[in-house]
Amino acid sequence: MTTTPQLIDALVERATPVARLRAPLVRAGRWLCWAAVVLALLVAVHGVRTDLTAQLRQPEFLLSLAAALATGILAAIAAFMISIPDRSPWWSLLPAPALALWLSTIGYGCLTDWVSVDPGPVRWGETLDCFATLLLTSVPLSLAMLVMLRHAVLLRTRAVTAIGALAVAALTSFALALDHDLDATVMILIWNLGTAALITAAGGLIGGAMLRRVA
Amino acid sequence: MAFMSAGRPYRGARLTLVAPSGSEAAADARRPDGNLDWSRLMARAQDGDRQAYRALLEDMAPYLRALAARAFKEQSDVEDTVQDVLLSVHAIRHAYDPGRPFGPWLLAIANRRIIDRLRRQARAKIREVALAAEHETFSDAHASLPPSEESSASRAALHQAIENLPPDQRQAIRLLKLDEMSLKEAAATSGRSVAALKVATHRAIANLRKLLRVRNETPDRNPDETP
Known about the structure:
The structure holds 2 protein chains of 2 kinds. By secondary structure, chain A is mostly helical. Chain A has one domain (21-114, 122-214). Chain A is built from 8 helices and no strands. The longest helix of chain A has 30 residues, at 185-214. Chain A is elongated, with a radius of gyration of 20 Å. Chain A starts with a helix and ends with a helix. Chain B folds into 2 domains: 2-127, Orthogonal Bundle (Rna Polymerase Sigma Factor, Chain: A); 147-225, Winged helix-like DNA-binding domain superfamily/Winged helix DNA-binding domain (Arc Repressor Mutant, subunit A, Orthogonal Bundle). Chain B has helices at 2-6, 24-27, 38-46, 50-69, 75-91, 102-127, 149-163, 167-178, 183-190, 194-217. At the A-B interface, helix 1 and helix 8 of A face helix 4, helix 5 and helix 6 of B.
């Protein structure tokens, strides 16, 4: 059983100089820059969807795209803000308006598709391609987020992982909308839930390891 | 949670307490009112100044103890919470921005650790049952609690019944059940075959069952009188 003075001795012994974290806004900006690089690479390699110009003239599509992008940016800022102990937890509500708008456009899309659904052939090739885009966008973004927010596991683990996963999910959806004309709403939902679970699990593991390393 | 609202008066930069330790390193980190400037100490600790770090942790501990004492009754819980907070502060000390007040930063971490512990305790309370002394039984009779009247009465009856068995059955029960020998060991000790011991044990248990049943039905009668 370690007494508190013994613990203080041990901690002082290990007090090596540390690099201070930059302001949360700066760090969110860096993550968003990384996201921009990933998306740019994806577009450069894969190209955009063939009917993008036509789609961009549709207000619903444009609104959905803008809402997803805004959700991603605001959620990233919120995640970096609430990862710092003394910042207000209310920051987590920052992406809420954009999220509501984005979900309402997805919902509207589902509703109109439901009405006009026809038993066409299943396009496996396109679905796999779409899945590859999901992976190529969300994995690098999730990993970067995980590394940058690893200090938050000791604090608001769930809130940070949920908001961080929302940022990844929104930007992934943005990339999908640019690249594919497949309605992958269900896949986006499934994948986003998977990402959130992955980040939460990894957060739990790293948190335990960090505590053990210090203790 | 009531605790969260109770923590509000501590918000702000006036969280610094009068330092009991007269660390020299901390001497120039004092505010005009004589209190240690935790924010400045933490900034130095981030740069690797161990003396400043020690002064900060030692100065923080009593404050954290007082904070934890409002949530926990047990002294061990209070001390564990203080240590949890110190470990957390150490693990994420790079996340502190010296440009901002230290108090809210520390309080947010302390509240988180206190809530974690309260939740853990609440969960344990639902799942676990504290073992009372009578739940503990050891193979060595002296280590266990003295038997109750009822159990000693039934034990005496069992021993009496064993005494009343024919000699070969009594020996089989002694060796195999009371001394917990294996059939091989019992055979070697008694010089009887394994098969004979098995048969004797089987008959002895049947007899004991009969003897004890009769005794329970007519407690005043002598087991010897049973047909």
